[in-house]
Specification:
The chain folds into 2 domains: 2-148 and 341-353, 3-Layer(aba) Sandwich (Rossmann fold); 160-336, Rossmann fold (3-Layer(aba) Sandwich). 36% of the residues lie in helices and 16% in strands. It contains 16 helices and 13 strands. The chain has helices at 13-24, 41-50, 61-71, 86-89, 106-109, 123-132, 147-150, 204-208, 213-222, 239-244, 255-260, 283-289, 297-300, 307-319, 325-336, 343-353, and strands at 2-7, 29-35, 54-58, 75-78, 93-96, 117-120, 137-140, 170-174, 197-200, 228-230, 247-250, 266-269, 302-304. The chain has a 7-stranded parallel beta sheet with strand order 3-2-1-4-5-6-7. A 6-stranded parallel beta sheet has the order 10-9-8-11-12-13. Helix 1 (13-24) crosses helix 16 (343-353).
């Protein structure tokens, strides 16, 4: 039995690794399909080799489809919507493991594709997806990406290895690429938190896409501060940095749900830099991009609307991390499902069960 994982982008990989481990423990062969990407091939190849993954290169979607039709794997796991699967379904089963659990509309829209099954995180998302797509098959397994943290099996990173001070508390700033809070933060942002370590884990696109070169410029500047470590493209997984952090700052990123699921405090920056095409009479585009699930951010994290409030609330929640703890536990189970370290095992069992 063979399972292929479709890696459209490098940052999909950490989502798949726990499932790969669960499948390989049952003697299932797992192969990662890597898409050629200019300037990133070496980083992608180094990462998969470091993790001992079997892999094949493809040039694009059409090339990937040819590979699937020729290889005829038992299963193909996708991280986002895809189309034209009729031929593939004649020889392979397909499933969707969405690459994030954030509040963007694409989380739900992705199920409007012909993928056969979708692994879902929690009762709330399961109910909404079933209402939107009653003819589809959804399986509530929980969020497999967090399994390595729950089971203490993730790769080890230390503050010392990041040249940060082990005697200081650590803040993790994990913004998305759009709509982002990066442009709204001051040039001296690290100075506002000089008594803490500050790890900055930007979205993959903030680092590689020319459209976000102003974000990258600011990130590079922040990296010059002694109390700061700015993650590079090669720092693929956020999990090691989540383990080190006492508190997270984020905006419209799904990592906020991931972090608060560990029952750690988070600050939600509800202020963003919007393109002109998303402002004024075009603000409906902004609302269309973000789903109503954004409202749940305020239940698991402390909402702030400017930098002054951000500084105040960071200090408050670091000194009293139990604030919102009950809400975090309640909402995490509702939005992410069971957080027991066995999500990947449930996915593996479903895959094997459907193949017998």
């Amino acid at each position: 039995m063979r399972v292929f994982f479709d890696i459209q982008h490098l940052y999909y990989v950490p989502q798949y690794l726990p499932v790969k481990d669960a499948l390989e423990a049952k003697n299932i062969q797992c192969i990662f399909i890597l898409y050629q990407q200019e300037h990133l091939n070496n980083i992608l190849e180094d990462y998969v080799k470091t993790h001992g993954l079997d892999y094949l290169w493809v040039n694009n979607r059409e090339d990937a489809k040819r590979t699937y039709l020729e290889a005829k794997p038992d299963w193909i796991i996708f991280g986002n919507a895809t189309s034209e699967l009729d031929d593939i379904h004649s020889c392979s089963k397909t499933a969707l493991m969405q690459h994030g659990i954030g509040p963007k509309s694409c989380y739900y829209d992705a199920s409007n594709s012909p993928i056969m099954y979708r692994f879902v995180e929690g009762k709330h998302r399961l109910k909404r997806l079933q209402e939107l797509f009653p003819a589809k098959d959804f399986i509530d397994t929980g969020y497999a990406k967090l399994d390595p943290i729950i089971n203490n099996t993730d790769e080890l990173v230390t503050l010392k290895s990041l040249t940060l001070d082990p005697n200081k508390k650590t803040i993790l700033y994990a913004p998305t690429f759009y709509p982002s809070s990066i442009e709204c933060l001051p040039k001296n942002f690290p100075e506002l938190f000089k008594t803490y370590n500050l790890i900055i884990k930007p979205h993959f696109f903030s680092l590689i896409k020319s459209r976000y070169k102003s974000q990258k410029k600011k990130l590079t500047h922040w990296g010059n501060y002694e109390n700061v470590y700015v993650c590079d493209v090669s720092d693929v997984s956020i999990l090691p940095f989540m383990q080190l952090a006492s508190l997270m700052i984020s905006d419209a990123s799904s990592t906020l749900f991931e972090f608060t699921a560990l029952n750690k405090p988070a600050i939600w920056c509800d202020f963003y830099k919007l393109r002109w095409s998303y402002r004024g009479i075009f603000k409906f585009r902004f609302h269309n991009r973000l789903d109503n699930d954004l409202a749940y951010f305020g239940q698991v994290a402390e909402r702030v609307i400017n930098v002054k409030e951000l500084v105040q609330q960071v200090g408050r929640h670091l000194s009293t991390p139990q604030l919102k703890a009950a809400d975090r536990l309640k909402m995490s189970e509702y939005l992410i499902g069971k957080i027991d370290g066995n999500c990947s095992e449930r996915i593996a069992e479903f895959i094997i069960g459907k193949n017998t």
